Batch of 2 targets.
Target 1
Amino acid sequence: MTEPSLRGSLWLHDADLRRYRPLTASTRADVLVVGAGMTGLLTAARLADNGLDVVVVDAGPVGGRNTALSTGNLYAPVSRMADLVARWGGDTATRVVQWRQQAVRSIESLVHRYDLRCGFQRVTMQYGVQERSRDATAAFERELQAYQRVGLSCDHRQSGLPFALGHAFQIPDQAQLDPAAFCQELAQHLVGRVRVHDWTQIVDIDAAAGIARTPDCSIRARHFVLATHSPAGFNLVQAEMEVYREYAVAVPVRDMPAPGVHWIADRQRSLRGVRGTDGRHWLVLVGETHRTGETPATDPAQRLIDDAQRNFRVEGEPMCWSAQQFRSADQLPYIGGSAHDNVWVATGYGPDGLTWAGVAARMIAEGIQGSSNEMDGVLSPMRFTPVRSAAGWLRTNATVARHMVGDRLAAASAGTAQTLAPGCGALLAVDGKRTAVYRDDAGTLHAMSPLCPHLKCVVQWNGHERTWDCPCHGSRFSATGQLLEGPAKQGLTPQTL
Ligand code: FES
C-alpha cells in the first residue's frame, strides 16, 4: 500500500508512529478486525477483555489514517440535534445521546486504566451563532430546545473567543484528546493480548468460508469487523451515504481560545486550541466542506486560514489537511451486523465520528458475544427507514446517477497532455479515449483509466489535494493512481500515453 495523503494533520506533525510487523503468514483468530483506527482498536480492546483471540490489521499505520485527520473532539450531542429530534423523536434522540455519553466515559476509563498519554481532558462544549438576525436566533433557539429535550444541561454563558457570539450556551463534561496518540498508545498496551499488524491490506473476505485474504496470506476467523470508515468492496450501505470532504487547518497563534470544543453553527466552524509538543499554541479550525469529487475552484483551506487571520493573531505557517465524511441517509450511523451474520460494519459517522467509534466498539463487541442491546434496532445497517431516509436517498442516488451517467457522456477537457502544467491533472482525450493524466513536479506524465475500479464512475481531479476522487461513493486515489481510500479495493489502471 502507498502512504496515504496525510497532508500535515497536527496530530501527525511530530508523531513517532510505531511500526508493527505486516502479516506475512496465514493465521487464525476468533475475530479479525480490519482497521486500526479508533473503532477497530476500541472494539479489539473490548473483545480481548472478554478473552477472545483478536487480530487487527490496517492497510496503513496504526491510528494514522482517518482517525488522525479528526479534531480529537468527543461529545455527547450530534451535529444538528434539532434535526435528530425531529426525525427520530425525543426519546430515541435522548438514548442516542446517552449511548454517546457512555462511549466518552468508556474511552476515558481506558485512558486511566492504561495511563495513555494522549492529552485527554474533560472540557466544556460551546454551541453558538455569530449573528443576531431573526433566522440565526430562531435556529439557535431550536437547537437549544433540542439539547434540553435530550437532557443535556445548557448554561447560558459564552467564553473564550476573541470575537463575540450573538447567542451561545455551554454544556459541561465533554472531552478532547490527541486521536493519533490515543491509538498509538492503546495499540501498544494491547500487544500481547491482541495481534496488531500494520501495512497489511485485506483484498477479499469470503464470509461464508470464514476466510480473509491479503496479497500474501489468509486469516481464518469466526467474525470479521470492518472498521475501515467505509466497508471495502460492494456493500448496500454505500448506496445510502453521501460522501463529503471536510477541510481543517492548524495555525500557530499568540493567544489560544479557551479550552473546549467551540462550534459556531451559522458559520459552520468548529475550533479548539491545542498546546503543541513544541510549546506553541495551535488553533485548529475545521469547517469547509464539499461533496467528494466536486472540488471547488477556490481552495477551501484558504478560507479557513483567512478566518483564522481575521480573528486570531497568527504567528506562523499553517498546516492544512482534510478528511472524508460518510453521512447516512437518516442522520444515524450504520453499526452492527450486515447481510452476513459474521461480518460487522461501522460507517456513516458523519462529522461526529470519534464518539461513534466508542458506541460502535460496544455494540459490535456485544453482538459478537451474542448479546443483543437496545442500540441494534436503531443503528443496525440492515434497518429500513424510508420516511426518515427519503430525502437522503434521493440526494445520494441523484448524485450517483448524475456522475455515473453524466460524467461518462461528458467531453474530455479541451487541453492536451503537452500543455498540462506540473502538479496538475485533467481528464484528457488521448487517442480518442478519455484518460486521467497527471504531470508530476519533475515534468513526467502519468496516464490512467478514469474509471473507478469500484463501480466504474469517472474520477475527478482534486487540485487542492492532488488526488483523483470518485464522486459516487468516495474512493480516492493518489495523483499517480494508487488507492488511498475505498470502497474501491485497487488503484486506477495505468495506461500508456
Ligand atoms: Fe463507487 Fe467509485 S467509489 S464507483
Target 2
Amino acid sequence: MSEKQYSSKNIQVLEGLAAVRKRPGMYIGSTGLAGLHHLVYEVVDNSIDEAMAGFCKNVIVTIQKDNIIKVEDDGRGIPVDIHPKFKVSALEVVMTKLHAGGKFDNETYKISGGLHGVGVSVVNALSEWLNVTVFRDKKIYKQSYTRGVPNAPAKEDGKTDKNGTTVEFKPDFEIFEILEFKFETLSHRLRELAFLNRGIHISFIDERGTEKISDVYYYEGGIEMFISHMNAKKKMLHDKPIYISKAEDRIDIELAMQYVDTYTETTYTYCNNINTTEGGTHLVGFRTALTRVYNDFMKKLELDKKLKVTLMGEDTREGLVAVLSVKIPDPQFEGQTKTKLGNTDVKQFTERLVTEALTEYFSQNPKIIKAILDKIVRAAQAREAARKARDLARRKNALESDSLPGKLADCSEQNVDKTEIYLVEGDSAGGTAKEGRDRTFQAILPLRGKVLNVEKAKLEKIVSSDALKLIISALGCGIGTSFDIEKLRYGRVIIMADADVDGSHIRTLLLTFFFRYMRPLIDGGHIFIAAPPLYQIRIEKKKYYAYTDAERDKILEDYKDKKSTVSRYKGLGEMDAELLWDTTMDPEHRIMYQVLTEDAELAENMFTILMGDEVEPRRQFIEQNSMYVKNLDI
Ligand code: 0RA
C-alpha cells in the first residue's frame, strides 16, 4: 500500500480527530490540569481493562523529562491484524477511531472503564506526538502519530518474548493550557486503581527531577487494604475490615467496611474503577441492605423491643468507613459530572448480595455485630433526643409568639408596674372575676381543669399542657433558659383559687411551675396568692368577712351580745361579681400573700417534697399550705 492510498482511506479518521481537537472539553472535560491528567488515566484504564480481563499483571507509568508520559503493560498487546472493515491494522483503528477502544467487538472485554472510555484515540488526537509499541506473537510492532494522524502504517520492528503494549505521548501545547503533570494527582489515582484491582502491580516513576522518584502500588488485600490504609490512625470498633465479594451473571460486587469511633461516614463507591462521587444505584442498594440487616439483627437479638429503637439509615452509617466497588458490562453514568451510576438493576442486585453476605458474616461473627449495634443504637437514641429537642424548641417558639390567648380578658393600662393578672381556677369564677374587676389594670385568665404537675413531667409535655400554654403566652416572657423578665406583661401575677384542698393543690402546682420554669418571677416578688374570705358573718343587717379562723373568732367576740350567723364560703363561685371585687380583688380591702423565696434551697426542697412521688410528706405539706407564703398588706 502506497502512502497516498493510505491517506485517502483515512479521511473519516481525520474528521473524527478534527472534532476532538476542535472541542476537547467534550471528550476529556477540560483543557486545564484535570484534562491533562485525564490523558494518562485514559491510557492506564486500557491497561487496567486488560488486567480485569485477566491478561495483565504489571503496569508502569513514567513521567519522563519534558512531561512526556509512558505507559507500559504486559497485557496481550493491541491486535495488529488488518481490520476487515477499515482495511488497516486493528492497532491503527484503536488509535485513530473514536470510541473504538477495546470494545470494537463486545466479547473482547467483559468490562471496561466507562468514564474514561472515550478511547485512547482521543489521547492520540490531543498529543503533539504519540508512539505505540506492541509486543505480540513474538514480534514487536510500532506505529507513530502526529496530532492523531499516523505517520505511516504500523510496521514490524524486531522479535520479542514479551506480550504487552507501550504507549508514549506528549500532550499538545496547542490544546492544553498547562503541560506540567502533578506527581500527587497521578499517584493518588494509580494507588486507587491498585486498591480496586487486587493483585495488580503499578509502578510509578517520575524522571523529571534531578533525582528519579519511584513508587510501587500493589495490594494483595485490595479494597480491604484500602480501608486499613484510611483507618490506620483511627480507633476501630473491630480489628479487621468486613470484606465481601460476590459475582453473579456479569456483575461483580466487592465491599469492604469497618466502623471507627467517629460520627461521620466515609463511603467511596466505584463502578468499573470510576469513583462515582455522585453515588447512584449501587450506593442506594448498599445503604438499603445495611439498614435492613441491622434491623433484622436487632429483632433476632431481641434488642428492638428491649431498647424500643428502630434504626434509620443515618444511624447505621455513623463511624462507617466503606469502599464499594461494582463492575458491570454496560455502565450508565449520569449526573452533573457523569459520576452517578444509573443502571437500575444494580440497586436490587447490590441490595440482595450485600444483605445475603452481611447476614452470613454477622451470624458467624456475633462479637462484631454486637459492637456495631452498640454504636448505632446509641446513634439512633441521640437522633431521637435531638429530634425531641428540636420539636421542643419549635413549640417553645410558638409559645413565645405575640398572639394572646382568646380566653384572656386583658386590661387597658400599658405601664406594666401598675397591672396585674388573675389566674382564676375555673371558667365560672373566671367569668365572675371578669365582671367584677377593674378593667383598667386587672387582666383575667380563667384556667380550666387540673394544672399539669411539672415536677413529674418532661418539658415537652409541659409546653403541650393547655393551662400552662395559656399562662406562658399571657405572661409573654417565655420559659426556662429563654425566659426574659423584660417581656413580662403584668407586674403582679395573682393566683386565685378556692380556699379548699383542690384550690390548694392548684396553687401548689402553679407555684411549682413558676419555680421551675419562671423562677425570676418568684425571686422578683411578682407572684401573689389571692385570699378570698373564709367566712361571712352577718351581724343584724351588716356583713363582715373573716379571712382566717382567728379573725372570725375576733369578730364574734366583738359582737357577742348581738345576733350573728356565720357562713363558710365553699368556693369563689358562691360569690357574685360585686362581692368578689369587695372581698378579694379591690386593692383597698383585699388580702394577698406574696410568694417569696428567701431561702431558695429550702423552697426547692419543698417543691420536691410537694410534687415528687412520696405521698405522705406531700399531704402534710398541703395541709399546712401557707408555710411558704407571707402575709402581705397592700
Ligand atoms: C483491543 C483488543 C484487545 C486488546 C486491546 C485493544 C488493548 C488495548 C490497550 C491499550 C493499552 N494497553 C492495551 N492492551 C490491550 C484484545 C486483544 C486480544 O484479543 O488478543
